[in-house]
Amino acid sequence: MCLGVPGRIEEISGNDDPIFLTGKVDFGGVLREVILAGIKDAKVGDWVIVHAGFALNKLNEEEAYEVFDYLRQISEFGRIELEDTDGISGRAEVVEKG
Amino acid sequence: MKYVSEYRDKESALKYAALIRKLVTREWSIMEVCGGQTHTIVKYGIDQLLPDSVNLIHGPGCPVCVTPVELIDQAVAIAGLENVIFCSFGDMLRVPGSWSDLLGVKASGGDVRMVYSPVDAVHMAAGNPGKEIVFFAVGFETTAPVTAAAVLQAEHLALDNFSMLVSHVLVPPAIEIILSSQDCAVQGFLAAGHVCTVMGYTEYEPIAEKYGVPIVVTGFEPLDILEGIHMCLQQLEEGRVDVENQYLRAVSREGNRAAIEIMRSVFEVTDRKWRGIGRIPGSGFRLRERFSRFDAGKKFKVSSHEVDEPEICISGEVLRGNKRPFECVAFGRECTPVHPLGAPMVSSEGACAAYYRYRLARTNNE
Ligand code: SF4
Q1: What is the ipTM of this complex?
Q2: B344 lines ligand 1 (CB under 6 A)
Q3: Which residue range is the domain that position A21 belongs to?
Q4: Is B233's Cβ below 8 Å from some Cβ in A?
Q5: What are the pLDDT digits (tens) for B93-121?
Q6: What 3-state DSSP class applies to B243?
Q7: What is the CATH classification number for the domain harbouring A15?
């Protein structure tokens, strides 16, 4: 229900009333018309999180890979043997790529 | 897809799982508030990657599941009226009311349509001046801005044939109800990422402090959830109580002011009844007086009265995280996604439906 999908703004169509400000957003090749009224200074090329046809916020591209940095940091910090995943890999067949 | 598939990387998931195993020294119970997260957890088997000492409790975070029966009955009654086109998100169509669901109305000739966005319903109203278009507005703070935008657009277009049945619910008061109950086993929370994309997380800071529980704002992909769990466990193991943000790419502490403003200009806070939980003060949105002409409840005077749930259904316990779907005697027998007895079996994000789809099917195949 609270699904939010990241997409890239390809085109912005202005309107005199800001509540009608929309743009074409590209979701991995699929273009959709999205309301941009909630995005301050929206620009072509910005990434946004879209829910039910409304852009909730800009996506912070600099932070996008933090999840991997954190993984690296905590494993280095704790000097944890990350190869030691054997015991659980059998259960993980459901975590899939892509 | 960029910014999606990376976060499903199996190798990184296994690393997170290994780190979590090394970290925990005792039993902990963490609740994920949002149904979208429940769905990811059960679908990808994240709970099965965790050590047995980490217990994930599924929270009430599915707005479809908590919409009270009375309101479904009201929707069903309005959808059955002549000249009405009743629009809703897909999941709402099969939620059982006390005598029918919305699909039942459609089957008997009512005009019930699924829409992707409330704004589609506004366009429909503009294109069908002879019809009454009613939108069933359910959702958390994530959905409230787009519902509000639809109302503002309808106002701007001076539409008098558009209205909505509003059942918006708010997350923080529900977290408080769970934490303040006597038998609460929850020691840490994963807060719902997209709710916080809009709202930020300042509202959670006094809650974490008052109840002494760490809260980690968390995203929806498998790696997000594993990182969120790791951050939460780290706080628990260290005896810290903070509000932390895992979902940095989408959430800032203040949230998105522009979206909040749109939402607040249309809605005001009200008490709301949650299916299976009861009335929670200050836990919903209703239209402000200025927009009352868009209120379908006022426009169409259909009667509705308080209704009890089917006795066999323990959805209240499931929604509060006290019981698991497997503990319900009707689970997978009388109650299935095709014939749901309670709302958590209807929405794909409901805990019962997620267990039915990903767990029962798998057990049967083994
Ligand atoms: S399995 Fe069905 S009857 Fe049992 S709690 Fe879930 S929704 Fe209710």
Answers
A1: 0.87
A2: yes
A3: 5-96
A4: no
A5: 888 888 888 999 999 999 999 999 999 99
A6: strand
A7: 2.30.30.140
